[in-house]
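Hey, can you fold this one?
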Amino acid sequence: MQHEHPAVVLCLSANGIGVVRSLRRKGISVYAYDIKERYQLGRTRHAVCGICPHPTYNQEELLTFLIRLGESLGKKAVLYAASDDFVYFISKFRESLSGLYSFLLPDHTLIEAVLDKRLTYELARKHNIPCPKTYIINHEDQLESLSNELTFPCILKPVFSDDYRKRLNKKAIIIEKAETLQQEYRIYRQYGELLIQELIPGNEDQLYGVGAFFDEKMNLIGLFTSKKLQQFPPYFGSASLMLSTREETSTELGIAFLEELQFKGFGKLEFKKDPRDGVMKFLEINARTWLSHSLSTACGVNICYLYYLSMTGQDPQPITNQKEGIKWVYLVRDFLSFRQKEKNGEMTFWEWIKNLSGKREYALFTWDDPMPFFRITFNHLYNAWKSRREQRKRTGKR
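Sure. Predicted structure:
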């Protein structure tokens, strides 16, 4: 295999760090960039790292930055986006970037649809994909009439989840009863647009992920499936503990949905099995590498490398089988989730340790590149301590 083309990775979160490592260990030259805050935490010795303009607030500056970078590299670089804001930026400026970078995304209308949860659920219903009942809120006046239709508890969910989580670090807000719906809506609406969704009961281990890479001709080149064991924040959040496993119903449903959509490039879907009727229900879709994708590499499906080979015209052989039973852990996030569950009387220390047992792949820690782990771990612990201190001040507790 030929590796003369460099790779450029945008976003130095755990997701982006995983992309960098998977490519560098194949001997590929990697350049990685992010805004200042994430760069300071996630810079890694496996890439030439730097600060770039913000993909949402400084788009013209970022475009100029990437054009100059591409011109300086000598060879056409393979471009990766490890966060939604970078995905949208690349999609929006795909014509300007395509001369200097190789990348593959679905049509821009699909990118907009997967980033806007209202459009996402319209797509699912159009293609007869089972999903939770979802209510679009255009005016606050709708809430009173909706209260008679809703089953409580239900959830408030951000329309644009990536931006919302940066503001509030919440993926969903549980509404326990009709009497609090309007009040809770007013509180959380200030952080971004919201929709209301049916709450599917069941634990986190009923959440299944289907990750895939389709090439330009919609050939399935890489496939990896897993299930969540724990999330951060608990109950509604991103994975902190994952297990490599094949679940056929979600796999068949997810691949068929991606094929119908002509979803080229990376696609990651999440489903939850509803214990009330046994139906696997669609929750979300992303057009990028996903947080726990390094687990796929540990299980024999290096989906980032397959993408590189495809983007450089090397026609990789599809890999759709995986090792099962390997866990992926984002240790500091999993610890913080455990602490919250312990506080709620839902998990003991020994139960948490048991969950971590077995063969593991770590989200951040490696012996040859330990510093991102220490910087990001300290940042999470500091933010958790600061949040508890502020809460104690508000409540008057010591």
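The two ends are 61 Å apart (CA to CA). Let me know if you want another pass with a different chain boundary.
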